[in-house]
Design brief:
- With 467 residues, the chain is an alpha+beta fold.
- 34% of the residues lie in helices and 20% in strands.
- The protein has a seven-stranded antiparallel beta sheet, sandwiched between helices.
- A hairpin with a 4-residue loop joins β16 and β17.
- The longest helix has 21 residues.
- The protein is globular, with a radius of gyration of 23 Å.
- Belongs to the FAD-binding oxidoreductase/transferase type 4 family.
Length: 467
């Protein structure tokens, strides 16, 4: 429960100028909207606001700026870096009601949506025209477009389509002072100086609040083949990836997970593995094949050369969904069956094998009793390293150990030219480690931007950097 109180003048302005259902201080709502998928920080917001329009967001932020009321923007709250956590008495600004989706422009292949539109709803909205916004991940049924943009989300299709920022043509953003910016509209080309969209994409709501976006669309892919392979270890995962790069297939996704991840999924979801014999690692591959005979010959060669120990190809859409469920249920299952300490890191693909070998040596030598659940988007160099809390260790002690271990892991990340956050952002969880990825000069530039755009430090304060 927060001990921070909102100024009386601020509350009077809200009561006089906004709908009666605009603001809530109901304890259950505060607990719900004050947190994201992380469970490290207790939610402690002062209130939650539910605007319906950009105009309401603009007037609210002008009031917050004048009264120095801190604001935490909130979307689907599916992040894993505590970027949407209100732990210090902030006002949560929920975009949940701002979920309008405009008609699809089938000539320009674009669609304008409000920030609260759910990712999967956008997919369905566009699919009837044979188009898609190709940003896709396990949380697509809950995540919001605004949050995807604010964190420059990645997901399972980056290997083919790239990151969120590549699929955003225009943004409507409200500044800390309440000014509304229209950035780039629906233009493909606009060579008129610095692209201000990019200041806000990936900034986690610390520089402005995204309220609407014009999204770039592409054609729905052709028939996708979904494969699941069993391989002995991470080195074999990487060997198979090198082969897949030169296969007669157009890769859409190349995902992997370890046997420990599969065990947690089976414990929580009771899903069945298609393989009788266990294996150290599994690869889920989705690809568009143009020559069935060539694909079949390639698959046969994988077994002949010992690159895989087992494998299956989905024979129907329902089987493809079942195979994907083994991968997409991992995060949910880890949280449901224990307390995971999560790290979302990225490495140059060429450095993955060396990094994973050194990381295994580190955990084996320093923390041999820890269960490490490793999975990720190998095709774009993104690893999710999950350390499960042992049942015999108290939470506080476990977090203290993982905090120290993170310094060593991030030193390895830096050694191999990687990033401490691939797709979930910095938020509160990664803030103390940002120097492992960013230089002092870069950090000072980030602070300069924060001071310039948010002089009263009201927008998601305490996240990423302090001004």
């Amino acid at each position: 429960m927060s001990t921070v109180t909102l100024p009386d003048a601020f509350l009077r302005a809200i009561a006089e100028g906004f709908p009666t259902d605009f603001l809530t201080r109901e304890p259950s709502e505060l607990a719900e909207y004050g947190r994201d998928w992380t469970r490290v920080y207790a939610p402690a917001p002062t209130a939650v606001a539910f605007p319906r329009t950009t105009e309401e967001v603009s007037r609210l932020l002008a009031l917050c700026h004048a009264h120095r009321v801190a604001v935490v923007p909130s979307g689907g709250r599916t992040g894993l870096a505590a970027g949407a956590v209100a732990a210090r008495g902030e006002l949560v600004l929920s975009l949940r009601r701002m979920n309008r989706m405009d008609p699809v422009d089938v000539l320009g292949n674009t669609v304008r949506v409000q920030a609260g539109a759910v990712t999967e709803a956008v997919h369905q909205h566009c699919a009837q025209y044979g188009l898609t916004w190709p940003v896709d991940f396990a949380s697509k049924g809950s995540s919001h477009v605004g949050g995807n943009i604010a964190t420059n989300a990645g997901g399972v299709k980056v290997i083919r389509y790239g990151l969120t920022r590549q699929w955003v043509l225009g943004l409507q953003v409200v500044t800390a002072q309440g000014q509304v910016l229209e950035l780039n509209g629906a233009l493909e080309k606009n060579n008129t100086g610095a692209d201000l969209r990019q200041l806000f994409i990936g900034s986690e709501g610390t520089l402005g609040i995204i309220t609407e976006a014009t999204l770039k669309l592409t054609r729905l892919p052709g028939k996708q083949e979904v494969f699941l392979f069993a391989v002995p270890d991470v080195a074999a995962v990487l060997r198979l990836f090198r082969e897949a790069r030169h296969a007669p297939l157009l890769l859409s996704a190349y995902e992997f997970f370890t046997d420990k991840c599969l065990a947690r999924v089976q414990r929580h979801r009771k899903l069945r593995s298609p393989f009788e014999a266990p294996s150290g690692c599994y690869v889920l591959m989705e690809a568009e094949g143009t020559d069935p005979a060539a694909v079949e010959a390639w698959l046969g060669s994988l077994f002949e050369r010992g690159l895989v120990t087992d494998g299956t190809l989905a024979q129907s859409a329902s089987q493809a969904t079942e195979l994907w469920a083994l991968r997409e249920s991992i995060s949910e299952s880890l949280s449901a069956t224990g307390l995971p300490h999560k790290n979302d890191i990225s490495l140059p693909i060429a450095a993955l094998e060396a990094f994973c070998g050194e990381m295994d040596q580190f955990f084996g030598a320093r923390y041999p009793t820890w269960e490490i659940c490793l999975f990720g988007h190998i095709g774009d160099g993104n690893l999710h390293v999950n350390v499960m809390k042992p049942d015999t260790v108290e939470k506080a002690e476990f977090l203290a150990h993982t905090k120290q271990a993170d310094h060593d892991i991030f030193a390895l990340v830096r050694k191999h030219g990687g990033s401490i956050s691939a797709e979930h952002g910095i938020g509160l969880l990664k803030k103390d480690y940002l120097s492992y990825t960013r230089t002092p000069a870069e950090l000072e530039l980030l602070r300069t931007l924060k001071r310039a755009l948010d002089p009263n430090n009201i927008l998601n304060p305490g996240k990423i950097v302090d001004p």
